[in-house]
Amino acid sequence: MSQDMNRDDNHDVEQRLRAALRPVDPGAGFVAGVMARIAAERPRSARLPRTRAAAGWLTFALAASIVLALLVAHQQQARRTQQGLEARRQLIQALRVAGDKLELASRMVNAQQPPPNSSNSGA
Amino acid sequence: MNSLLRRCILTLAALAALGVRLAVAAPAAPLKLPEFESLAAKASESVNVSLDSSLLGLAAGFLDPKDPQDAGAKQLIAGLKGIYVRNYTFDRDITYPAAEVEALRRQLAAPGWQSLVKVRKEKDHTNVDIYISVDQGKANGLAIIVSEPREFTVVNIVGAIDLEKLRRLEGKFGVPKIPLSDDDHPGGAPAPAHP
Fold first, then answer.
1. What's the average model confidence in pLDDT over B5-32?
2. What does the pLDDT read at residue A9?
3. Strand pairing partners for B159?
């Protein structure tokens, strides 16, 4: 008797499961919903390459900035060197002129002074 | 450069030793050099050098300390605040602009400046004026005006021109010493008087 009751219970559960898991047609709206969702998500997937492109540009800009900064620093150094060499040239030129004129002054002063002991040199 | 610097040092030291008693505080500012436009227009060759302290420092950075000449020059300019040179060379005899030269001389007539050398050689039409300014026994300014028949030169050196340093430099260059003070004379004789 109890065995028959168990069998009935099992059958009942099985029936209910089958009923619950039976294939159901999602209807025409399902396909439309899926397609709409795909369409909605498409811009998000397209945004990714754009971000990558932006990152690429950023890297390029950073590299270009570094190169530009190095170039500017190099140019400044070159200009500084040029100014230094020009200043050195002018310094040497100035010393040359000053030396020449001081020597001229010295010669003229010495020429004006009487030779030492000139009057006592005779016998 | 070596002989040039040596001559410059020697001559400057000798001129300073010519017997000025230098105890007047003097301005260490550069002279206001006239433009000398008329001279520049006629000159066949001109030198216009204006080196202030920053440019002198820059130039000093490019002097090779291992080179004795450069090292000497570096030491010489160590205390300087400026070097200003105007030099004009002409192909023919010219008349110098009296007004501009007079304006320059007026600046050198100000207190602090002393005439160190004044030579007039009528035969050669050559005039040399050297002025020096001294503060506490140390020259802090030098001005040279030289007019020759075909050359006109103005030199203004601003800053501490240490004559002792110049004398030490002489030793380094192997040049005989020039007495700068009474101690250098045997028997303590004073330095020669101003001519």
1. 58
2. 83
3. B80
